[in-house]
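Feature request disguised as a bug report, sorry. It would help if multi-protein outputs had a clear separator. Right now it looks like this:
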Amino acid sequence: MKISIITVCYNSSKTILYTIKSVNDQSYKNIEHVFVDGLSIDNTLELIKLNSKRNTKIISEKDNSLYDAMNKGIKIASGDIIAILNSDDIFASNDIISKVMNFINETKSDIVYGNINYVNKNGNIVRVWNSSSFKRGSFASGWHPPHPSLFLKKSVYECCGLFDLNLKIASDFEFMLRIFENYDFKIEFLDMFFVNMKTGGKSNSIIGIFKGMNEIKLAFKKNKIKPDKLYFLKRYLTKLMEYFK
C-alpha cells in the first residue's frame, strides 16, 4: 500500500529540513510526501524541492487556516493511507511507518494510532502522551488519541468528510470524535511512539485553551454526544499527568 504524508508549512525554513529528512529516512518505500505551503516568503519551497527524495507533491497558495491547508493536502493525496506530519515534527524512528503499515495489513484496520513525545527546541522530551485502546464512549469521559499519531485509510475521509473549517483550534478533535464515535470503523491502538512533536502552538496557550474549550463543546454538540459533567477536569488532569511520565 502507498502512504501519503501531508506536511503543512509556512515560512518553515528553520525546521522543515528535519521533517523532510525524517520522511526520507523511513525504511518503508512506497511513500508520497505532500507539502501544502501557504505562500512562504523565506526559502521553504526551495528546501522542499532540493531535499525531498520521496514522491513529492507541492501546493503553494494562500489558505484560510491550518485545517484548510490539511484539507487541500488530503484532497490531492493518492495514498491508501494518510498521515499528517507538521513542519516542525519528526517521526520517532526510521522504521515507524513500516511497523504501522505492517500492523494495518495484519489487523485489517481502518484507523491506527499510537503514542507521541513532546520535545522542546533542543529535542529533549518534556512530555509523553501514552494513549490506550479505544472504547466507544471514551471521548465523553475526557479521552482522545493524539492526532499526530493518526494513520487512517483515505476511504475514512471519503466516507466522513474533512476537517470542519468553522473550528480554528479544535477541528482535529472534532474530526476524531466524529470518526471514532459516530462510525463503525475498525480502530486499533499500536503501543509505540509514532512522532516527536515540537511543543507550543495555539492550542497550548492560555487563550488557546479557553478557545479550544468552547470549540470542544461545539464539537460534542455537532456530533450529538453529551460529555461528562467533569469532562474538562478529567481532560486537563490527564494532560497535567503527562508531564510526570
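(second protein starts here, but nothing in the output says so)
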Amino acid sequence: MHIGIDASNIRVGGGVTHLVEVLRAADPHKHGISRITVWGNSKTLEKIEGRPWLDRVHDKMLDRALPVRLYWQRFVLQELARMEGCRLLFFPGGSYTGSFRPFVALFQNMLPFERSEAGRYGLSLTHLRIALLRLSQTNAFMAAEGIIFLSGYAADKITAIVGLNKEASIVPHGVNGNFTARPRSQREIGSYSPAEPFRILYVSQVDLYKHQWRVAEAVVALAGRGFPLQLDLVGPSYAPAMKMLRGYMARLDPAGKIIRYHGPVSYENLPSVYRSADLFVYASSCENMPNILFEAMASGLPIACSNRGPMPEVLRDAGLYFDPESPGQIAAAVEKLLVDREKRSECAAKAYEYAKEYSWDRCARDTFSFLAHVASGRRRQPLESPSGGPK
C-alpha cells in the first residue's frame, strides 16, 4: 500500500514538528504500508529524516506564494498521486479542494472554529484569512473519508459541524524525549531573593488569544506584594499583540526587572529553557492540542494553566486553573503554588507521569493504523480514542 502526504501548507511551527516527529517514529510496514511519499517545500523536507520507505519529493511550486501552492494542491497533486499509485492521501494541514479520493484530513487549528476567539482580530486581513481557513477546512472535513482529531475537545467541536458519518479517530500529539526531566526538589519561596528570583516561564507565540499581558499583570502584582519573581516570555510574535505586550511591559515594569521577553527559541534549545524555570504558566484561551503544555509537563514543572479548551483534558488534576483573561485569577493560582511547596511537588510529579502517555511512537502507530484502515475501505464505529476504546 502506498500513502501520499501533502505537506504543501506545512511550513512552520507545530505542523512541521508533528510531521517530522510522526515520520521519525513511524513503522508503516506494520500496517501494511510499503511506501510513503511526502510532497513539500524545500525547508520542510530538509527537516524530515530519510527512511528506506520514504520518498521526499520537492516541487518548486511549493516554495512560491500561497496562490501557487493552492493551484498545485487542487490541480497538480491528484495527478502526481495517481502516477505514484497512491492508495490514499493524507492532509496534515487539514485543507484540500482537489478530486483525489480517498483522503484523510488532520484537524490541527482550532482558531477558525472558535468565533469569539477569531473575533479578537477585528476587521483585518488576519480575520479574513481565518474565515477563509474555516471555510476551506469545513469543506475538506465534509469531503474526507476520515478525520484525525488531536483531542476529545476538538472532536466535539468539529463533529457538531460535519457530523459523524465518516471514519474518525482521536490521536494526540507526542512529546519529544529531549524534554523529559524528572521533577526537581521544590524549595520554599523564602529561599528565593531578588538576586535569585523564582522564575516563571511562559512559552508560546505572543498573540491575541495567548494573553501574555494578563500574565504580566498578575506576576507584577505578586512581585508588588513581596514575592521575588521573574517572568520569562519565550516565543515568536504577531505584531499587533507584541505591540500590546510592549505597552504593558513599559507601564508595569519600566525598569525591566521582572518581565523579560526573549523572542523565539529554536526547538532544539527549548528543553534547556524549561529546565531553567521554577514554574510554568499557560494562559491560552484557544487550543486544539497544546504541544507546549506537554513539553512543560514532561519537563517536570509545576503548572498554572488556563481553564479553556482542551487544557483540563490534558493536564487533568496536575495543575491549578484560572480564567486566562483574569489577572486576578492568574495571580491567585500562581500564588497558591508559590506559597505551597508541597502542592508544587504534587503537581509537578503528576504532570510528569501524565506526560508519559503522550509519545510520538504512539502517535505514529495510531496515525498510520488509521490511514491504513481508511485506505482499506472497511468501516468502524464509534469514534475511537488512541487506546482503541470508545470516545
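Even a blank line would do. Unrelated, but nice: Residues 17 and 267 are 9 Å apart (CA to CA).
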